[in-house]
C-alpha cells in the first residue's frame, strides 16, 4: 500500500510574526482543500519568547528582560505556556480533524502526531518515551502546574528522556483543522529563560529554577555527542514520515502566498492588540 503524500516545508529562520502567520495560513489553506496535510520545520530570527494564547502578559512576563536580551515576542494562536525559541528545532503539523488517522480527542491526537517526534529522538540514539501520568497525583500535576514556563512539566503524551521533558507542544483546532506546533530543544540557557518571567520574589524564582533542572533537559545535555540543527532536521523529518506513515513532497510558497503571509504577520502577529491583549 502506498504511503499518503503530505507536503513538507523547511522555512529556515524567520521572524516571530512570519512564523505564526505561516502556521495560520497553512491551516487556512488546508481547511479550504488547497493543500494536503503538511509538516513544517522552522527557526527564529531573532530568538523569541512565544506565549500561549491565554497567558497574561502583565502578570507573567518580564518585558524589560525580553528587551534587554534583544528577543522577539509573539503570542501564539495555540495554548500552553511561555517558550524561549533559541537553540531548537521548531515543528508544526497541519492536518484535518476528519483525517482517518486522527483521533477525535486532543490528547489522543497529540499521541498520534507526536509519534513522529518520538521516532526522531530514536534516530538520534535517545531513549525517549511518552509522558503518561499513572497516579491521581501525577494527573493533578499536569493540570495544576502554576509555572508560566512551558518546559516546567510534561503534559499528556509529550516526550521525556530519563524522566525529563525534552520536547514541548501546543495544539489548536480551527475550521476543522488541527494545528500542532512545538519545540525540540537542542540546547537551553536556563538563566536567560527564567529571567523572562515574573515571580513573587527572588526566592520563589530560585526554587522554581532549581526544580526545573529535574523536569526538563535539552538534547545536547544528554547526548553522547553534539547534535547539529542539520542532523536534527534529518532525524525528525524521517521520524515524522515513519510515525505518520506518510511520504513527503517538498512545497514552496508562490509569490501570492508569501504576500498573504506577510500581510497576516503585520496585521495580527505584529499587532500590540493581539500580543498584549491579556
A few lines on this structure:
The chain has helices at residues 16-31, 57-60, 63-68, 106-123, 136-144, 190-195, 202-212, 219-222, 229-244, 255-269, 272-275, and strands spanning 4-14, 38-44, 48-51, 72-75, 83-85, 88-96, 128-130, 159-161, 164-165, 167-174, 177-185, 246-250. It is an alpha/beta fold.
Structure in words:
Helix content is about 40%, strand content about 25%. A hairpin with a 2-residue loop joins strand 10 (about 165-175) and strand 11 (about 175-185). The radius of gyration is 18 Å and the shape is globular. Helix 4 (about 105-125) crosses helix 9. It has a single domain, classed as 2-Layer Sandwich (BirA Bifunctional Protein, domain 2). The model is unreliable at about 135-145 (pLDDT under 50). It has about 280 residues and is α/β, with parallel strands linked by helices. GO terms for molecular function: ligase activity; lipoyl(octanoyl) transferase activity. It catalyses: octanoyl-[ACP] + L-lysyl-[protein] = N(6)-octanoyl-L-lysyl-[protein] + holo-[ACP] + H(+). Pathway: Protein modification; protein lipoylation via endogenous pathway; protein N(6)-(lipoyl)lysine from octanoyl-[acyl-carrier-protein].
Strand and helix map with partners:
Blueprint: E1 4-14, H1 16-31, E2 38-44, E3 48-51, H2 57-60, H3 63-68, E4 72-75, E5 83-85, E6 88-96, H4 106-123, E7 128-130, H5 136-144, E8 159-161, E9 164-165, E10 167-174, E11 177-185, H6 190-195, H7 202-212, H8 219-222, H9 229-244, E12 246-250, H10 255-269, H11 272-275
Parallel strand pairs: 1-2, 1-12, 3-4
Antiparallel strand pairs: 2-6, 3-5, 6-11, 7-8, 8-9, 10-11
Helix pairs in contact: 1-10, 4-9
Organism: Bacillus aquiflavi
Family: Belongs to the octanoyltransferase LipM family.
Subunit structure: Monomer.
Amino acid at each position: 500500500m502506498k504511503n499518503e503524500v503530505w507536503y513538507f516545508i523547511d522555512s529556515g529562520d524567520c521572524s516571530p510574526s512570519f512564523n505564526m502567520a505561516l502556521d495560520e495560513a497553512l491551516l487556512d489553506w488546508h481547511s479550504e482543500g488547497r493543500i494536503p496535510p503538511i509538516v513544517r520545520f522552522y527557526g527564529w530570527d531573532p530568538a523569541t519568547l512565544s506565549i500561549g494564547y491565554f497567558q497574561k502578559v502583565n502578570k507573567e512576563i518580564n518585558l524589560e528582560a525580553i528587551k534587554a536580551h534583544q528577543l522577539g515576542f509573539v503570542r501564539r494562536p495555540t495554548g500552553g505556556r511561555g517558550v524561549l525559541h533559541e537553540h531548537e528545532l521548531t515543528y508544526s503539523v497541519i492536518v484535518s480533524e476528519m483525517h482517518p488517522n486522527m483521533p477525535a480527542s486532543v490528547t489522543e491526537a497529540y499521541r498520534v502526531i507526536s509519534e513522529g517526534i518520538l521516532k526522531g529522538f530514536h534516530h538520534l540514539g535517545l531513549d525517549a518515551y511518552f509522558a503518561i501520568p499513572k497516579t491521581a497525583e501525577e494527573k493533578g500535576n499536569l493540570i495544576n502546574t502554576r509555572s508560566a514556563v512551558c518546559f516546567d512539566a510534561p503534559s499528556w503524551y509529550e516526550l521525556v528522556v530519563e524522566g525529563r521533558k525534552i520536547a514541548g507542544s501546543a495544539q489548536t483546532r480551527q475550521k476543522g483543522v488541527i494545528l500542532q506546533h512545538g519545540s525540540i530543544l537542542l540546547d537551553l540557557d536556563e538563566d536567560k529563560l527564567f529571567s523572562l518571567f515574573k515571580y513573587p520574589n527572588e526566592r520563589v524564582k530560585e526554587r522554581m529554577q532549581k526544580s526545573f533542572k529535574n523536569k526538563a533537559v535539552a538534547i545536547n545535555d544528554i547526548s553522547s555527542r553534539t547534535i547539529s540543527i542539520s542532523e536534527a532536521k534529518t532525524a525528525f523529518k524521517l521520524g515524522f514520515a515513519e510515525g505518520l506513515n506518510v511520504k513527503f513532497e517538498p512545497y514552496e510558497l508562490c509569490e501570492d502566498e508569501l504576500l498573504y503571509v506577510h500581510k497576516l504577520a503585520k496585521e495580527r502577529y505584529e499587532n500590540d492588540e493581539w500580543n498584549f491583549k491579556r
